[in-house]
Amino acid sequence: MFKLFRFVRPYRMWVVAVVLLMFLQSIAQLYLPTLMADIVDIGVVNGDAGYILQTGAMMLLFAAFGTLCNVTAGFMSAKTAAGFGKIVRGNVFAHVETFSLQEFDKFGTASMITRTTNDITQVQQVLFMLMRMFLSAPLMIVGGIVMAVSKDATLSLVLVAVIPLLVAVIVLVASKGLPLFQIMQAKLDRLNLVLRENLTGIRVVRAFNRTEWERSRFRTANESLTDTAIKVTRIMSVIFPIMLLLLNLSLVAIMWFGGIRIDNQHMQVGDLIAFTQYAAQILMSLTMVSMMFMMIPRASASAVRINEVLNTEPSIVDRTGARENAYVQRGVVEFDSVTFRYPGAEQPAVRNISFTARPGEMTAIIGGTGSGKSTLMNLLMRFYDVDGGGIRINGQDIREMRQEQLRGLVGYVPQKASLFSGTVAENIRFGSDAATMEEVEHAAEVAQAKPFIDEMKEGFDSAVSQGGTNYSGGQKQRLSIARAIARGPAVYVFDDSFSALDFKTDALLRASLRAETEDATMLVVAQRVSTIMNADRIIVLDDGEVAGIGTHRELLASCGVYREIVTSQLSEEEIQ
Ligand SMILES: Nc1ncnc2c1ncn2[C@@H]1O[C@H](COP(=O)(O)OP(=O)(O)OP(=O)(O)O)[C@@H](O)[C@H]1O
């Protein structure tokens, strides 16, 4: 956890100020019982009202000063802790942005969200507590002991007996709590995962009448988290009664022995009052420390999880000295014996794939589900790195390029259209901030999105809700195609992006795209033969391997797998 505290650095002056203020507050508080003792032993015993009033006023002054220090320190620590939280969240977010999909697969979205929110809040709360108690609690304990001993050394033996007992209780409870806190955070992850899956898949859950099943899944995760939380609370809750019991017992013992000492004229009444207050201050501070110890295990479990994210090195990074090419208008894409296996998978998803896609041409990839089509596109986008072979654009290995440059060359339309909350125009402009309104409109026109955008009252300013849920599947696909077109890239990657379009729109879109993208390299993954039968080159994938490469006619003659796909979709006349 302390490793994370490096992010407090911008607030270090505030931390110093808080520590100083808490120091002053502790001194003020430690002085109060002594003044009280003076009032009794000097003022009351001698019947000196003036002295009582004067010392009383001083007590008020010290108390007010202590409170002022405390309030200011509270304000400053709250601000520092909140600032710390902001910095850590920002750093985690920025670091996660550098991850390749491999690291995303490793943590999972739900856990990443818990780590960025709840886990950071835990550490933030402990920082707040620590700043206020870091110095003041030990000071109150040590100062209290010194003052108590100065009032009556013999009576202090009571404290000598109690304090080690209290410390032992705190250590025992904290050591039992730590493993449970780790389990609790993992269970919180699970709860978030179930909740997230349920919310994002709500349509499927409803359609398949799985509401009850989902509810029971949530209940199980919820109960499991609650069970652990109860276990933790049960352990932690013994600490307070034990501490209070010890506190009260020690006060009784102090009164008892103090009374005897006063009887024997070894001690004054005022000193006993002050002694009891010091004892209460010491024991209260110990209780506060124990509270801190209760929070530290949970926060350190959280800190481990945050550090795990921060310490994970992205597997895909720009090579030092990655070449910065001049802006490339054309993109020759070469796959050279590409082999790739997803981490944890037994078999490679694609094996030994070689082909070249040229500017001005449409290269199509077709194959059964799970044959590796999207994987090839993921590799070209460098979401993952190849295990064998290489991918080159204009003769340069993509691992030698800066990721930003590579992705700047490509207009990528993913299999699952994903839109962002905002307006239609903002979504189309997503990949190219500089696009003018005319360019945005033109891109929408080419993507056959203009007709439905024009039909909406607010046109390009129409709202897109989170995830684009207020648009149909086909409309979302067209908007994400328009987004790629607005960039005017050298290479287009359409990963099964026409699947939700009707045949007429599909044909219109391809025709307008052809005219628009004369010089661009087009890579089109498709399930429908009609979408790609006019392609310059068709690559047929079968179970991760190339089953054939050629034009529609060539493949019909030479490739059994292709013929099978075609005959399952088209009539005899259409095939010719
Ligand atoms: N993130 C992943 N982790 C592990 N395995 C994966 C991952 N993504 C895909 N796979 C596996 O890799 C293989 C190829 O998947 P891919 O998505 O490339 O197929 P596809 O041809 O695009 O299929 P579809 O047409 O159904 O989209 C499949 O066996 C799939 O199970």
TrEMBL record:
Tell me the membrane topology, using the record's own terms. Answer: Multi-pass membrane protein
Q: Where in the cell is it found?
A: Cell membrane
User: What would be an example GO MF term here?
Assistant: ATP hydrolysis activity
Q: Where is the ABC transporter domain?
A: 333-568
In this entry, which stretches build a coiled coil? none
- Pfam families recorded: ABC_membrane, ABC_tran
Q: Which InterPro entries match?
A: AAA+_ATPase (IPR003593), ABC1_TM_dom (IPR011527), ABC1_TM_sf (IPR036640), ABC_transporter-like_ATP-bd (IPR003439), ABC_transporter-like_CS (IPR017871), P-loop_NTPase (IPR027417), Type_1_exporter (IPR039421)
What PANTHER family has UniProt attached to this entry? ATP-BINDING CASSETTE SUB-FAMILY B MEMBER 10, MITOCHONDRIAL, ATP-DEPENDENT PERMEASE MDL1, MITOCHONDRIAL
According to UniProt, the name of this protein is ABC transporter ATP-binding protein
The scientific name of the source species is: Paenibacillus ginsengarvi
